[in-house]
Amino acid sequence: MQSYFEYLRDMFELVIQHIGTFFYNVFISCWTDLPNNFAQYGDRLGNYYSGFGFWGWFFYVLFMILLLGLIFGLGFLIFVFLRKYIRFVKRELDKEELRRQVERLNYELFQAVQEKDKILNLKVGYMGFKTDENVDEESKETIEEVSARFPKLIRVDNKYRGANLDIPYRQDLTLEELCNSFRNFCASQLKLYYREDVVRQLFAGMASSKLIVLEGISGTGKTSLAFALGKFFSFDSAIVPVQPSWKDRSELLGYYNEFTKKFNETEFLRALYTTTYRKDLNIIVLDEMNLARIEYYFAEFLSVMEMRDPNDWVIDLIPSPMANDPVNIKEGKLLIPQNVIFFGTANNDDSTFTISDKVYDRAVSLFFDDKGRPFEATNQEAISIPYTQLRGLYDNAINQYPISEDMLKKFDTLDNFVIKKFKLAFGNRILKQLDTFIPVYVGCGGTEVDGFDFIFTNKVLKKFESLNIAFLKDELKELDAQLDKLYGKGNFRMAHNYIQSLLKNN
């Protein structure tokens, strides 16, 4: 037995000795031999350097430089590799830590939601309602709104669920009567005074475009006009103040929050969704629309509303639909109804952005340069008509008052003159709006000449502001004379005034 323990001691000593020798050879021996290695290099050099000569020493120095460069290069690559590897490992560790924190926060959020549901049930029970499976309809709606991804839109669903929204047609109503009634309503009920031609331009503009721009100096009744129109049709306009920070569609429609699992709904989205239920004309106002660039945050709407088929006027809201999403959001998409009109108010001052031609081409712009003058008006109450009746009045006017051939020929002559003198042309979009605007303007009680005057001034002359007017004064005077030649003196007053202002300001 004594021999065995002696053997065991000797064996452990031998194992420890071998392990020590291994680590010595790996970590220490290589460095102890290093001076000997350099000495060997020196011995080799001593054996041969006497016969090097000039070129031998030259190539020796060059070789040493390349060798040292190779060694340092390999060392640098190893250093870069190790640094990237360390960063990669650290990044992965940070990701793992972040994942654990997100899981912990999700768990805490789940616990908070559970506590909130318990508190909600206690409140419902305190108010005398039953809870759990016996909860009444009103409580079910409240709980549904709280738990849904679109609580505001679900609230709209609950409000209009089962409601009778049919509106009877008003017999013997004409566009001219509608314009006069609205003008009298503004004067008698709201003390707002608008000229007859402005009201005609408003209704003809709504027939030819879904975007109406009300621009001019502050305090001339731009926002009030859109507000009054909603009051007149017995459903208030939705006023959405535009913020200078708006840069994309998320500012307008909202966005889906992956953390809370809810859609951050905006007032604009709620107002737009409401129109999917209603049968009358609905107005959404972008107040101070040019505080930010409308061609940025409203770009999707500008593009969608250019499509010929209204069934293609679809806005994507969310990529993954769920069963409890709002009723009128189909497959995560919202169809823009035809009964909605977008108004935008714009002040022309140094604090705002210039509205681009892209917007002007698609919209109808009304300019306000003075306050309305009071007049005696008959008392007029608000009315309710379905949007289909208003659309029918527009269609009847288009069929009843087609543009005369004589006016089309004159406008074509004017088009050729503008192309020749100013290198500007009437786009197809303007001509398409012309086919709707002029007949409806005539149906509202206006004349063809005044309708063409409005379109030419707002769609064509506005583009002249981008030209160098200082070098085109003679051409502008020729254009002024050409208008008198085509349409007679005393007509095209808007165009004449605009041309005179261009000449005066430049």
Report on this structure:
With 506 residues, the chain is an alpha/beta fold. The chain is 59% helix and 9% strand. It is built from 19 helices and ten strands. The chain has a five-stranded parallel sheet, sandwiched between helices. It has a three-stranded antiparallel sheet with strand order 6-8-7. A hairpin with a 2-residue loop joins strand 7 and strand 8. Helix 7 crosses helix 16, helix 16 packs antiparallel against helix 17 and helix 17 runs parallel beside helix 19. The radius of gyration is 39 Å and the shape is elongated. The chain starts with a helix and ends with a helix.
Question: Tags for this entry?
Answer:
single chain, 506 residues, alpha/beta, 3-stranded antiparallel beta sheet, 19 helices, 10 strands, 59% helix, elongated
Structure, briefly:
By secondary structure, the protein is an alpha/beta fold.
Helices and strands in order:
Layout: H1 2-32, H2 34-48, H3 53-126, H4 137-147, H5 151-160, H6 175-190, H7 196-208, E1 211-216, H8 222-232, E2 238-241, H9 249-253, E3 254-257, E4 262-265, H10 267-274, E5 282-287, H11 294-297, H12 299-304, E6 314-316, E7 329-330, E8 333-335, E9 340-347, H13 357-362, E10 364-368, H14 387-400, H15 405-422, H16 428-443, H17 448-460, H18 473-487, H19 493-505
Parallel strand pairs: 1-9, 1-10, 2-5, 5-9
Antiparallel strand pairs: 3-4, 6-8, 7-8
Helix pairs in contact: 4-5, 6-7, 6-8, 7-16, 14-16, 15-18, 16-17, 17-19, 18-19
